[in-house]
Design goal:
Layout lengths: L1 H14 L6 H18 L7 E5 L9 E4 L9 E5 L28 E15 L4 E15 L31
Parallel strand pairs: 3-5
Antiparallel strand pairs: 1-2, 1-4, 2-3, 4-5
Length: 171
């Protein structure tokens, strides 16, 4: 009985290095199909924004042009002097209604432009471009993953791909 179990264990250990290749079937086609849909988007003079909410930070989320993949999108801070963001609500509403950040992972069609300024977000420890929106229109409330089907979201942490963009340690 012990010998067949050892063989099974050996076979399992021998196959383990091959298991990450299973992600290709799970994530690869999903990512490719999503990217093909993005590349086929109608072009126009607007931006596509994905709200990315993280507690206590000041960035809004990611912006890209139609037809541009999310990998090339920019994390931005919104200038609300012309128009407020759709989730400009109390962080902890007294009536239990919608709160700031309720629209995490929504896709928006946004008019506007970059101001050319950058601002420092001390809670994210990043210097980010400022975007001045003119209008927001919800495109999709459940668009799925942002960069990869394997991404994991936590409202307490900045996106993993942004960690390398934080400012160098101050001496």
């Amino acid at each position: 009985m012990l010998l067949p179990m050892r063989r099974a264990l050996f076979l399992l250990l021998a196959l383990l290095p091959l298991l990450p290749s299973c992600q290709i079937t799970a994530g690869g086609p999903l990512l490719e199909a999503r990217n093909q849909a993005i590349l086929a988007e109608p072009r126009g003079d607007f931006w596509i924004g994905r709200r990315y909410f993280v507690d206590k930070v000041r960035f809004w989320g990611y912006l890209r042009r139609p037809g541009q993949l999310w990998d090339n999108a920019q994390l931005v801070v919104m200038d609300e002097s012309r128009i407020k963001t759709p989730d400009r609500l109390p962080e902890m509403p007294a009536d239990g209604g919608l709160a700031h950040g309720f629209d995490h992972n929504y896709d928006y069609r946004i008019s506007g432009s970059f101001t050319g300024r950058k601002v420092y977000d001390p809670n994210a420890d990043m210097e980010l471009p400022v975007f001045s929106p003119g209008s927001y229109e919800v495109m999709n409330r459940t668009p799925g993953f942002l960069f990869s089907p394997n991404d994991r979201y936590s409202p307490k942490y900045i996106p993993a791909r942004e960690v390398s963009r934080t400012t160098p340690a101050r001496l």
